[in-house]
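BUG-332 | component: ligand-complex export | severity: low

The export step for manganese (II) ion jobs runs without errors, but we want the raw record kept on the ticket for reference. Input record follows.
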Amino acid sequence: MNSATPRGPVDATAVPRFGGPATFARLPRLDEVGRADVAVVGVPFDSGVSYRPGARFGPGHVRASSKLLRNYNPVLDVEPFGVQQVADAGDIACNPFSIDEAVEQVDRGARAVLEHSTRLLTIGGDHTIALPLLRVMREVHGPVAVVHFDAHLDTWDTYFGAPVTHGTPFRRASEEGLIDQTGSIHVGIRGPLYGPSDLADDQALGFQVVGSHDMDDLGWRGVVERIRARVGDRPTYVSLDIDVLDPAFAPGTGTPEAGGLTSRELLNILRSFNTLNLVGADIVEVAPAYDHAEVTGIAASHAAYELISAMAPAAEAGPRPHVSASTTGLGG
Ligand code: MN
Ligand code: MN
């Protein structure tokens, strides 16, 4: 953590919430504070989608929908912007005409931000970007446990012959040894599959599944128990496809499926991650052209807030197993 007092959002009693900077939660930019504990970075890329496009506008939309976030999280009794420096690192520019080049650009861009920040919270963009982000995580932390929220497995092999799309990041990641195959889990899976082999392949790639249909029987606390039992104290990366939420709570996404989580269930689960060893996270697949009244953007911004809160050092239990800059291997 920074030795200096963290600089928080613009004072809402001085600058009304509908004004001020266009950064996430009206936080300072990373270049204004020099170093952060958590950097929020956008990746406006959606050339890997298989159905509705539009997630390239996700980072701007989530930022615009984050203006009402306030300093104090009463459920966790933590001030996520007060006990750690959180800053907006802007967007990673990537080529909309070349998936391969874009994946390289996300890889380089994430490394560059990690020279100035302990953790990344990435706002997509489509789910393709999880692959380069996991490559960077692997280099820093070794294979990470992945808690993957999604309606979809995203462990398919190819689509129209393309190996790197938003439906394949976790198969590629497993093949490359980026994920801990004994500690990874999907949450919220639902909807029709191509066939039973999808699930068999997925299990062989190292994932457990908690389906959306399990929510009613287990309740969110039961889901949290499953996740904790699976990931333990491993370095854990959260990849959150906003389509894990029911279309009622997140209409603004590219591949909607009926029967998803409520935003309340999702936020409760994310809050519980303050006991996990979170090393990074992404929130992807927000496509604002299909959103209404910022419903999806607000859900995504609150999910980001709970993840940032869960990353915060605990007040009473002493420092959590924070990742120190010296262990990142990425300098600075
Ligand atoms: Mn999905
Ligand atoms: Mn996905």
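Assignee comment: Attached the raw record above. Strands lie at 36-43, 86-91, 117-124, 145-149, 184-189, 207-211, 235-241, 277-284.
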